[in-house]
Amino acid sequence: MLGLSSDSILASRYARIVPPLQNAALVPQRTRSLAWQRFRKGICRTSCKNKLDESNNGAHVAVSRTADPHSVIVHDLRLQLGPPGAKRPVLNGVHLQVKRGSLHMLLGPNGCGKSTLLKVLGGLLVPNGGLVHTDQPSGFVFQNPDHQVVMPTVAADVAFGLGRYNLTEVEVSSAVQSALRLVNLEDFMYRATHTLSGGQRQRVAIAGALAENPKLLLLDELTTFLDREDQFGVLHAVRSIASAHHDVTAIWVTHRFEELRFADAASYMENGRVVFTGTPDEAKAFLRNLGAPV
């Protein structure tokens, strides 16, 4: 079977061979694991850095982990999306700093640019200008767990991304168990993924990202499709991770203001810009001034 896709993530997870097209020519064939490795370990970030450097005459933020307390630094980030000749601005000079080891919530109405900003931070979109620094490696968890949870058992799914590392079976098993423990699913290791609730599947997706020991977790509206019980199960899992691992930063995109109580800090976006950053209490006061029900 031959399939065409512009979605690098899905292609590299489902296909056995992934020969990418570049400049109207096939690049030599890659196995699925090599394609996933190439996608996750640098194509997008290298392209992003090169374009940022070109846009800023070679300037690029380089922050020492010991010299700066921030996991994410964004300065004047700009992005246009759309067909040639009809591009529209989606990010309009974003400025953002996220403290290392925090759970930082990114709030705002639909269409304000929250998820787009998250994808730029994860290297999934290349901006037109500005400066970006993020701690690496990073892990991205999508809104719909069906886009990431694809293996038949929980253990196999969490271990999926570890296939590109030269790990022993014992090391893989240890990494899987540790990741599942962090999301409170250690007893689900051999459960079939199709038997899980939406919240449990979302936590499996988070565990898959955690197994690769990221320094930055990028979480895109994880509670959108979940009932109330599953929503708070996922939120408690992420809150526990941020509290237990002071060098791991989590950025949580949401439009649910009630989730603020789990955050260390929050930013609010409007029309492609960050217009507020502060503590959860300050964020609630800001939202009340906007007339939002908090």
Automatic annotation (TrEMBL):
One protein family per Pfam: ABC_tran
Protein's name according to its UniProt entry: ABC transporter domain-containing protein
Keywords assigned: ATP-binding, Nucleotide-binding, Transport
Single GO BP term: transmembrane transport
Family matches, as InterPro entries: AAA+_ATPase, ABC_transporter-like_ATP-bd, ABC_transporter-like_CS, ABC_transpr_CbiO/EcfA_su, Molybdenum_import_ModC, P-loop_NTPase
GO cellular component: chloroplast envelope; membrane
Record-level Gene Ontology MF annotations: ATP binding; ATP hydrolysis activity
Residues in ABC transporter domain copies: 72-294
Phylogenetic placement of the source organism: Eukaryota, Viridiplantae, Chlorophyta, core chlorophytes, Chlorophyceae
